[in-house]
Amino acid sequence: MPVRKLKPVTPSQRFRIVNGFDAITTDKPEKSLLTTKKRTGGRNNHGKMTSKYRGGGHKRRYRIIDFKRDKFDVTAEVKSIEYDPNRTAFISLLEYKDGEKRYIIAQNGLKVGQSVISGDKATPEIGNAMPVSKIPLGTIISCIELNPGKGASISRSAGSFAQLMAKDGKYVTIKLPSGETRMILNTCYATIGAVSNSDNQLISSGKAGRKRWLGIRPRTRPVAMNPVDHPMGGGEGKASGGHPRSKKGIPAKGYRTRSKKKASSKFIIERRKK
Q1: Backbone conformation region of residue 217, classed left if phi is above 0, alpha if psi is from -120 to 50, else beta
Q2: CA 4, CA 19: separation in Å to the nearest integer?
Q3: How far apart are CA 274 and CA 271, in angstroms?
Q4: Same domain, 30 and 163
Q5: 192 plus 224 within the same structural domain
Q6: Which of 48, 93, 97, 271 has its CB surrounded by the most CB atoms within 10 Å?
Q7: Whole-angstrom Cα distance, residue 58 to residue 70?
Q8: Alpha-carbon distance 249 to 67, whole Å?
């Protein structure tokens, strides 16, 4: 999936780098798996702005993704690899032997016509979902459950993956994309392979307008604000702003906000790097 650099025929095209979309096989989504997607514009139920710099953007329809992979021991054929406007990864349309269709997060190397399966009897091949207890050590995995049956919550974005490091009793140890090493129950499901669209990190918008299409509004630098608006605002001339911190005064750039009493801390072997 190489990226393309466009000819600078306009100022905005000069720095624009786009995805080649070589892996995409169709531009028409499966209608039965589409639903409406309501946008809030960053407002709560009173109409008050609770999330800044959001609003506008192109209309989107949500693709219903099967994160649980709970149709066990039924073979499915990959019908297409598609673009999803709601996520960085590509998605894949599966058609099971009984005729049911589902979307899943596409893994790198997944091809149209390939067969995938989920369950205890699955083999560790790309696109198959199985309990981590059945996966060989050192395998690259993605779309990992934290709680059995809840559905994938770890390593779902473009190009991300984790690695299975060790097995000990009812827990397995995995190394996450952030660098964190943690234990999860061996009954949790994971999908074999890294997530597709690994070139997403190389893409450059080229112009501010593309951010507006994505529903992101212009962001004001805190040092350009007044003291009443932000802790880093104010000062004579081009003042530096002091220590970097959020609008609520919480220090940024390395300050740890994770609660020391959090129950899941006992499962974390090594914290992520700063």
Answers
A1: beta
A2: 6
A3: 9
A4: yes
A5: no
A6: 93
A7: 33
A8: 37
186 and 225 together in one domain = no
Q: Are residues 224 and 140 in the same domain?
A: no
Q: What is the domain-level CATH number for residue 246? A: 4.10.950.10
pLDDT digit of tens for each residue in the chain (274 aa)? Answer: 589 999 999 999 999 999 989 999 999 999 999 999 999 999 999 999 999 999 999 999 999 999 999 999 999 999 999 999 999 999 999 999 999 999 999 999 999 999 999 999 899 999 999 999 999 999 999 999 999 999 999 999 999 999 999 999 999 999 999 999 999 999 999 999 999 999 999 999 999 999 999 999 999 999 999 999 999 999 999 899 899 999 999 999 989 899 999 999 999 999 987 6
- Please check whether residue 177 is in contact with residue 120, taking contact to mean a CB–CB distance below 8 angstroms: no
Q: Quick one: CA dihedral 78, 81, 86, 87, positive or negative?
A: positive
